[in-house]
């Protein structure tokens, strides 16, 4: 039951999936802390420190059973979250109390757990990106041959196809996918570095044996399922990594923002619509409205995400020497909320891309209103082939185009350029060919072929690599 008497974060209550919310939960974080403490103690025991198997076993017994209320009580007393959880864990695993967190600094658990959480969050995001790509792939193929007006400067331009336009959305996401993969390939844990990154405390524990200290770090990291660590750190992992993560999330948000804006404009033109449910209300006052609320929500959340990298940049730039604590409260908010917001964006993106509605007759009507202008060069060339004067034809078409433009803009009537051309003797040579010349599919170039080639060469290899991730559905919670 939601407590409506206090503020509830809408990223949790309205937008993000339970999967992403659970990934950033206190339960996951503090279980990782205990997993890290167990890995550290077990590795220290294996390397000869006076730690017993029974102590390890007792720690493992309570690894998943966190006494949150006691930890909160301790934190109010000591004003230190890590030490509060050390005490809470030690209260349960009492025999292990003397060796929990042995040689470690707070950032051993805080930084390593945060990195694991971020890594898992990136995996969730990757799964949703490839599912959006998969759904847009189907859309692009289905509509690869359907001509539509292209737009430059938001003004009608040469024709493209509905499917070709979708490949532009996919291409943005493929760039984001590659950036995400590059980020993941560089991922590593902080490791076991001690208070200021020198491993001095562990050198003390192992009587100056550098080989054992290095082996300790390797063992701990391997027990957690990883193999790479930062070679050097201060007290924390480099905060530039957070910035790199936020930049990748921002780029994904930019792609989603662009898509959402395109769909909103197309919905205004009544050419393409996002899904609209049977009982959905578009406006509290105007009952007839079908507002693009999904794409508007995508844009709204995307704007928030795009604004966040600057925050992380400032954090990275103000880490004095080995570390300062003004990053802590900030990062608790920024990292989690960036992922929660993007998760919400991609949930909607999946939903919309899978259920787009295309109104081909409206698209054809819009083409018919503009194509006569675009076809004038083709008409002129056909006349030249039969002996016409190119310069005279050009001037006549210019004059007739101005008349047709006035008919549309000043009188609010239909584009009558073709009728004007038919009535002009100078164009008698093409009078029987105008319907053929005005076939919209003659104006789309290689768009259908480009769709097929792009899908084959760029999209399908990525989807093949991620086929086990496919099949997700987008959930619009509210």
Quick recap:
The chain is mainly alpha-helical and 478 residues long.
Give an overview of the whole structure:
This protein has 478 residues and is mostly helical. It is 63% helix and 4% strand. It has 20 helices and four strands. The chain has helices spanning 10-15, 18-23, 26-46, 53-61, 68-78, 81-92, 106-142, 162-185, 200-205, 210-223, 240-268, 293-306, 309-317, 328-354, 360-374, 376-385, 390-409, 417-422, 434-437, 447-465, and strands spanning 147-152, 155-161, 272-273, 357-358. It has a two-stranded antiparallel ribbon. Strand 1 (147-152) and strand 2 (155-161) form a beta hairpin. The radius of gyration is 31 Å and the shape is elongated. The protein starts with 9 loop residues before the first helix and ends in a 13-residue tail after the last helix. The mean pLDDT is 93.
Instruction: Work out the strand percent.
Output: under 5%
Average pLDDT works out at: 93
Poorly predicted runs of 5 or more residues: none
Q: How is the main sheet built?
A: 2 strands, antiparallel
How many beta-strand segments?
Answer: 4
Q: What is the rounded Rg?
A: 31 Å
Annotate the secondary structure layout.
Elements: H1 10-15, H2 18-23, H3 26-46, H4 53-61, H5 68-78, H6 81-92, H7 106-142, E1 147-152, E2 155-161, H8 162-185, H9 200-205, H10 210-223, H11 240-268, E3 272-273, H12 293-306, H13 309-317, H14 328-354, E4 357-358, H15 360-374, H16 376-385, H17 390-409, H18 417-422, H19 434-437, H20 447-465
Antiparallel strand pairs: 1-2, 3-4
């Amino acid at each position: 039951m939601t407590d409506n008497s206090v503020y509830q974060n809408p990223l949790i209550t309205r937008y993000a999936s339970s999967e992403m919310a659970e990934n950033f939960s206190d339960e996951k974080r503090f279980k990782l802390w205990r997993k890290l403490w167990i890995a550290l103690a077990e590795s220290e025991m294996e390397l000869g420190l006076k730690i017993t198997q029974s102590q390890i076993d007792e720690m493992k017994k309570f690894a998943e059973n966190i006494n949150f209320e006691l930890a909160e009580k301790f934190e109010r007393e000591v004003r230190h979250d890590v030490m509060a959880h050390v005490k809470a864990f030690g209260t349960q695993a009492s025999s292990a109390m003397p060796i929990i967190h042995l040689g470690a600094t707070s950032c051993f658990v805080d930084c390593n757990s945060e990195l694991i959480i971020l890594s898992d969050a990136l995996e969730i995001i990757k799964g949703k990106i490839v599912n959006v790509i998969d759904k847009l792939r189907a859309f692009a193929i289905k509509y690869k041959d359907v001509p539509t007006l292209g737009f430059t400067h938001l003004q009608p331009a040469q024709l493209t196809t509905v499917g070709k336009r979708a490949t532009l959305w996919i291409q943005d996401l493929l760039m984001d996918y590659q950036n995400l993969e590059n980020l993941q390939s560089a991922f590593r844990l902080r490791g076991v570095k001690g208070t200021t990154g020198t491993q001095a405390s562990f050198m003390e524990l192992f009587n100056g044996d550098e080989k054992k200290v290095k082996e300790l770090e390797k063992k701990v990291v391997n027990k957690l399922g990883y193999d790479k660590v930062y070679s050097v750190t201060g007290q924390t992992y480099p905060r530039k990594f957070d910035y790199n993560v936020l930049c990748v999330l921002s780029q994904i948000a930019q792609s989603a923002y662009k898509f959402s804006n395109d769909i909103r404009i197309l919905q205004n033109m009544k050419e393409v619509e996002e899904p609209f449910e049977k009982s959905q209300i578009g406006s509290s006052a105007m009952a007839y409205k079908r507002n693009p609320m999904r794409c508007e929500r995508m844009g709204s959340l995307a704007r928030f995400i795009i604004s966040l990298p600057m925050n992380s940049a400032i954090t990275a730039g103000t880490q004095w020497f080995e570390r300062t604590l003004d990053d802590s409260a900030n990062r608790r908010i920024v990292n989690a909320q960036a992922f929660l917001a993007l998760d919400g964006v991609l949930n909607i993106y999946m939903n919309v891309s899978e259920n787009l509605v295309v109104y081909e007759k409206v698209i054809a009507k819009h083409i018919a209103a503009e194509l006569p202008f675009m076809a004038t060069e083709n008409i002129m060339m056909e006349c030249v082939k039969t002996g016409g004067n190119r310069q005279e034809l050009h001037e006549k078409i210019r004059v007739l185009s101005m008349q047709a433009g006035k008919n549309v803009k000043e009188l609010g009537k239909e584009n009558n350029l073709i009728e004007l051309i038919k009535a002009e003797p100078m164009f008698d040579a093409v009078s029987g060919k105008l319907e053929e010349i005005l076939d919209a599919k003659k104006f789309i170039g290689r768009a259908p072929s480009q769709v097929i080639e792009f899908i084959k060469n760029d999209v399908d290899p990525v989807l093949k690599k991620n086929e086990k991730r496919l099949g997700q559905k987008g959930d619009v919670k509210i």
